[in-house]
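Input.
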Amino acid sequence: MKTIALIGCGGWGKNLARNLNALGVLKYIVDPSPAAAQLAADLGVEHIEEPGAIWCDADITAVVIATPAETHCPLGLAALAAGKHVYVEKPIALSTEDARKLSAAADKAQLQLMVGHLLQYHPVYRALAALTADGQLGALRHIISNRLNLGMVRSEENVMWSFSPHDVSMILGLANGRPTRVRAIGSQFLQSGIHDVVTMHIDFDDGMTAEVRSSWCHPEKEQKLIVVGDTAMAVFDDTAAWEDKLTLTSYTIDRQLPRPKAIRGNVQAINVEKGEPLLLEMQHFIDCVDANERPLTDADEAIAVLAVLQAGQRSLDSEGGWVNV
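Output.
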C-alpha cells in the first residue's frame, strides 16, 4: 500500500479520515468544504476540492468514497478507470444495475472493490457469526434487527436506506438460505415521500425469517440484533457495555403439556476481545489491496444487500405487498 485519497468528508467521512490517518495511509482529503480543509490541516494531509488531480497521482493506490449514494457509481467507475482500488461507503449504489457496472469494472481492471458494511467487522458480530457457524444456536429460525434513534433525519433517502443496509448485511451474513421475498411497511410524517419508520420482513428459502426495524423518530437509541436458533438464542446489543454486548441463552421446549412451553436455560455473556470496528474495516481494506484478495464485503455481498433493499422499497411503494427478491 502506498497512499489513499478520501473523497467526501462529511459526518462519517471525518471518522474515515481519522482512522486512515492513524493507519498512516491518508494523503488527500477531497472535499470542497472549509471544514474538510481544516481537518486536513489538523491531520497534516493535503486538501483538494475536486478529485481530478488524484486520478493521475501514481502514489495513490486506492480511494475511499464517502459521498452521497447517487455519486458512488460515477466516482467509483472513474477511480477504477484510473487504476485505483476502491472502497465505497454503503450502499454500493442506488440500483443493482449500477452496482454490477462497478463490479464488472473492478473485475476487468483486476482491482479490489470493497463496500462499507461496517458491522461485518465488529468483533462482537464476528464472534456471533462464529457461534452460529459452529452450530451453537442450532438451526436458525428467526432474526430480529432493531436500529432506532432520535435524530439524523435525512432528506435524500428514507430511514430504510439510511439505517438498514448494516442490518441486512449482518442478517445475510448469518443466514444459510437465500432471501426469496420482502415485505415493508412504514410511516412518513416529517417529510412527504420520506419514510421515517420502516419495518421490513424477509423470508428465506430454508424457512428462516427475519425482521428489520428502523426509525429516526424513536425516544431511545437501540442497536440490537437477536438471533433465534432451535436450541439457543444470541443477542448482540451494541449500546451495552462491551462485556455485555453479546449474550447466549439456551432453552428447551417442553412438548408434553397441552401446548408447547419454552424453558429458559443458562444465560452466558460471551467474552470478546475489544477492537474498533472502523479501524479494523480500514485495515481489512488495506490488507486486501496489498494481497490482491477479495474483501469480506465485496461487490457480490453488497449486491445481495442492495437487492433486498430494492425489494423493500418496491414493497413500500406498493403499500406493503410482498415483493420477490
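The chain is about 35% helix and 30% strand.
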